[in-house]
Specification:
- The protein has about 400 residues and is of the alpha/beta class.
- About 55% of the residues lie in helices and about 10% in strands.
- It has a 5-stranded mixed beta sheet.
- A hairpin with a 2-residue loop joins strand 8 (about 310-315) and strand 9.
- Helix 9 crosses helix 11, helix 13 (about 330-345) crosses helix 15 (about 370-399) and helix 14 runs antiparallel to helix 15.
- The protein is globular and about 85 Å long.
């Protein structure tokens, strides 16, 4: 008899439902079931493991919350499966007719979900291997560090506007090798020497640098050093031989290390988007409007969805519009930045065929007077389609 554990994870606890079979009347069973609640401490984890579950199901509620419980369960030999938020919401409402959403209802729905769909792996979120999980954690940490640094930099510039105005708007960046903190922040923090800034400061019209600015600069340098350490770790992880064909394709798209890491963490392995025969899944269906046989590129659609650039059609009466919904916000933002910094500026465009073609499409769209935000997202979507085809071609040649 299999013991299935549904877990709804909160910030500091979990709600658990243990089943050995799916109840005939889940809605009625909800009021009779013995639910468990465990705190995120040693005693709570020990009590959870004492339930001796064979399989545990939970939602992918971010690495900070679900990681603790999933790791301890996996170490104890419990198989852990993840169920998507949207899939669970639809299942709870349409299949089980459970009452309004709460933690206990979610844990019951997760346990029931296994009995209905355990044989269909496509119903579960793919569990990535350790390297991919680590890459994603590092990417998210870099994003966090970017957000933390922005207000500090803004505060320093505002203070420098009256303390040392000659350098208030200087864009200080790390060198290409990225081994040292940016010169201006390092000089303000007293960590780097600069004869240029020393000469400027001797003749400044400002009122003099305060300790507050130097403290902020020291914080920035510490954050920059953490960034450098993370980037070095990312470089080692991305050097994995399994990613070589991906890296070769990404190079042709002029992806930097950060964008490479973001996309790798979202789409590896590419086989997860393909059919059972290892080829892109394409089906012929009757068109809703034309009523003619129409190709549906299902693998490409799933790939674009994962990258956050798959448009969805909304129709109501005479109104019809498309908008991008779902997928990775992180990937969508990273691809937008790629369009903005690599494809759009004339001086930054690479001269290979792929980026040149995409740049020309972007310029054509801009010349037609279309909204620039819409143009950039359209080019990002076109780039994602082209990326999928190039990756499929590379994987096919590699085999």
């Amino acid at each position: 008899m299999i013991r299935v554990l549904g877990l709804d994870v909160s910030k500091s606890s979990v709600s658990a439902c243990l089943l050995t079979e799916k109840p005939a009347l889940p809605r009625q069973f909800y009021y009779e079931c013995q639910f468990y609640r465990f705190s995120a401490d040693s005693a709570g984890i020990k009590s959870l493991l004492a339930l001796n579950a064979d399989i545990a199901l939970m939602e992918p509620t971010g690495s900070n919350y679900s990681k603790l419980w999933g790791t301890h369960l996996a170490r104890s030999g419990v198989e852990v499966r993840l169920v998507g938020h949207k899939e669970l919401k639809n299942y709870r409402a349409s299949h089980l007719a459970l009452p309004d959403k709460d933690d206990d209802a979610d844990s019951l729905a997760l346990a029931c979900y296994y009995f209905d769909y355990h044989a269909d792996q496509s119903r579960f979120v793919q569990i990535r291997d350790f390297t991919i999980v680590k890459i994603r954690e590092l990417v998210l940490r870099l994003c966090h560090l970017n957000r933390v640094q922005s207000p500090i930099i803004n505060r320093i510039r505002q203070d420098l506007a009256w303390q040392f105005p000659e350098v208030a708007l200087v864009k200080s960046k790390r060198r290409f090798d990225g081994a040292e903190v940016p010169l201006l922040w390092g000089w303000l923090a007293g960590e780097r020497k600069s004869k240029r800034y020393e000469r400027l400061y001797e003749k400044t019209a400002g009122l003099g640098i305060t300790d507050t600015v130097r403290y902020h600069a020291q914080r920035l340098c510490n954050l920059q050093r953490e960034e450098i350490a993370i980037e070095q770790e990312l470089k080692k992880l991305l050097a994995d031989a399994r990613f070589e064909p991906y890296r070769e394709v990404f190079h042709r798209f002029a992806f930097g290390q950060r964008l490479t890491a973001v996309i790798i963490s979202q789409i590896y392995p590419l086989s997860g988007f393909l059919g059972e025969d290892g080829k892109p899944e394409v089906r012929i269906r009757k068109g809703r409007n034309s009523k003619k046989p129409t190709k549906r590129h299902l693998s490409l659609r799933r790939f674009q969805k994962a990258l956050g650039v798959a448009p969805s059609l909304e129709a109501s009466g005479d109104k019809r519009r498309t908008k991008v919904v779902g997928g990775s916000d992180l990937c969508r933002k990273a691809l937008w930045q790629w369009v903005y910094t690599i494809l759009e500026p004339k001086q930054c465009r690479s001269k290979n065929e792929i980026t040149q073609t995409l740049s020309e499409k972007l310029l054509t769209e801009k010349a037609a007077g279309r909204p620039i935000k819409l143009v950039r997202m359209k080019i990002a979507a076109i780039g994602a389609r082209l990326l999928f085809r190039e990756l499929v071609k590379a994987m096919t040649n590699d085999q």
